[in-house]
Design brief:
The chain has 346 residues and is α/β, with parallel strands linked by helices. 39% of the residues lie in helices and 16% in strands. The protein folds into two domains: 190 residues, Vaccinia Virus protein VP39 (Rossmann fold, 3-Layer(aba) Sandwich), CATH 3.40.50; 61 residues. It contains 13 helices and eleven strands. Strands 6-5-4-7-8-11-10 form a seven-stranded mixed β-sheet, sandwiched between helices. Helix 5 links the parallel strand 4 and strand 5. Helix 4 crosses helix 5 and helix 11 packs antiparallel against helix 13.
Length: 346
């Protein structure tokens, strides 16, 4: 219990702030630079504090306020693997991560005719490569491959186990002898704090007409991938995309969508024109409606599940004489209240 309601995390300052202090406190949207947000969640699936909001001007879902870059690096170096994998020895997990994903990425690019000029696309670079398992299949197919990752353990594992050309660090630390034709971000972009800075760097590094492959968890794919929103949320993910918000961000930074879906797997082509003032198609209403419908659907599923359990237990005479102890009416009252709440919004 809090000492008092004034100690709740309501964002209200008790001291007078000047314009600079207010600006620093209220981080702007990465896509549209606005500060008008609607709060969606305050915790992630691990129960950690994780304020997630949706921008009312473009529809990008993002953590806000966010940690500093130093804090994220500290988290990845010391806590990320232990929290996500549940082991103190993440090396055991390296061979299990991405062993087949490189094949899927290659086939996806092949399907969408990225390799139609085979002599043009021969150099693949992956950011957030881990131990380099995505790159193994590309090397097998004759590509020059390189990768970079902030995990020193993963890089060392990939170098020693697979003899891959891997580097420890972040993209800005990398020195290139030639420009890659294909850059891969597989479940990495959602972790990056300053997306516009990162995409500007990618644009400078990638060859003219080069391909950027981006794979991130898609907001509109939650039912299939995670079932519900809270299970999807995790503190390491700073941004949550629809194909539209991702496309808008990439268009601003000099990339044109070749193909993509809401899962999200996507292919972008580097173009010369960067357009920071691009007209934004607002995804706010559509995304919010989707999330409300998702919550509504999950509650209905839960109610059906509860009814079946009660029916089965009554049939077996397991709870026939103890219905009051299970407080069934109270449970259904709460569920119906939530169902009606979301029903009104959709």
């Amino acid at each position: 219990m809090l000492l008092n309601d004034k100690y709740k995390n309501d964002g209200i300052s008790l001291i007078k702030l000047n314009n600079l202090q207010r600006k620093i406190k209220k981080q702007t949207c990465t896509i549209c630079k606005n500060t008008n947000f609607q709060k969606l969640a305050e915790k992630d699936r691990y129960g950690l504090y994780n304020p997630v909001v949706i921008c009312k001007y473009c529809g990008l879902i993002q953590t806000n306020p966010r940690m500093t870059q130093d804090s994220y690096i500290e988290f990845y170096n010391n806590e990320f693997q232990k929290l996500y994998v549940g082991t103190k020895n993440p090396k055991k997990m390296f061979p299990l991560h991405g062993s087949k994903n490189g094949v899927k990425i290659y086939n996806y690019l092949l399907k969408h005719k990225v390799f139609k000029e085979s002599n043009k696309f021969n150099y693949v670079f992956e950011v957030g490569c881990g131990a380099g398992l995505n790159l193994l299949f590309f090397r097998k197919k004759g590509f020059k491959v390189q990768g970079i990752d902030i995990s020193k353990e993963a890089i060392e594992f990939g170098r020693n186990k697979f003899k891959l050309d891997l580097y420890h660090g972040v993209l800005k630390d990398m020195k290139f002898d030639a420009k890659p034709n294909i850059i891969i971000y597989s479940h990495v972009l959602e972790h990056i704090l300053d997306l516009n800075k990162e995409l500007s760097l990618i644009h400078d590094i990638l060859s003219d007409g080069g391909i950027l492959y981006i794979e991130v968890p898609g907001i509109k794919d939650i039912l299939k991938s995670h079932l519900y929103f809270l299970k999807y949320l995790q503190i390491a993910h700073v941004y949550h995309f629809t194909l539209n918000t991702l496309n808008t961000l990439l268009n601003k930074n000099g990339f044109e969508l070749v193909f993509g879906d809401e899962s999200i797997r996507s292919v972008f082509k580097k173009i010369n024109n960067r357009n920071p003032e691009i007209k934004i198609k607002n995804d706010y209403e559509e995304v919010l409606e989707f999330l409300y419908k998702l919550e509504y659907r999950i509650l209905l599923y839960y109610m059906i599940y509860m009814l079946r359990k009660i029916k089965d237990n009554l049939k077996d005479f397991k709870i026939k004489d103890n219905l009051k102890d299970f407080k069934i009416r109270e449970i259904f009252s709460i569920i119906m209240k939530d169902i009606n709440h979301y029903k009104k919004r959709i």
